[in-house]
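User: Structure please.
Assistant: Input sequence and predicted structure:
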Amino acid sequence: MLNNRIVITLSLVCVFFSNLASAQVQDTLLKPIDTVKATPIKAVPMDTVRKKADTVKYVNPGKVAGRKAVFKSMLIPGWGQLYNNQLLKDKLNAKGEKTGHFWQKTYTLGKVGLIYGGFGALTLSYIESRKNYKIFLTEAQNRAFNNAQTDPALKRDLNTELSRYDDTNVLNAQAIYKRNGQIVIFSYFALYGAQIIDAYVAARLNFFDVDDKLSFNVSPTLINNPNAMYGFNNAPALKLSIKF
């Protein structure tokens, strides 16, 4: 009887400890799940994405070269043309071409020579126009002064070389030379602007990719003309085919 009680008691103790160990194992397994918390995903604002995208921009080399050519030409006429010559030289060197350097340099120096030759011719023309304008202006003033004086001792000496011109011709010549001087000044600005435009266009064209495969073909063909007379609906024409 005593042995049965001992066995029952030991059995109850074993069941109690086994249940206690099972509860501890379950708590141990559940704790990591409780401690692991889900990290919320933060939404990135679209403005931030756009700003990052805007930071990487395409730089047009032709546009940059055009601005540099304009700036150089504005400072010193002809400098933009020399800058474009250097750009083309670098481009030819990158392709391994050497034959075009001489002709390109000759062409560029020819343009620079025309620019300064034009400025020189305009300067000479302006000096000549101002000189003749002052001559005829002085003659016109002297004639007007002499016509207003009755005392011969007060009259001024006239230009003997202009004695063949009457008063109207002297005034007309004065106006013509004055207008010529104004045209020369306008031509200065026109030539200055033209060389800036030339430098800009040449700089942009240096970066245009012209493929050798670009070609066109013109051939005769017939087109349908519903308004043709005498029942001839087909009319002769030219067909232009462009391949690129």
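The chain has two domains: 61-209, 211-244.
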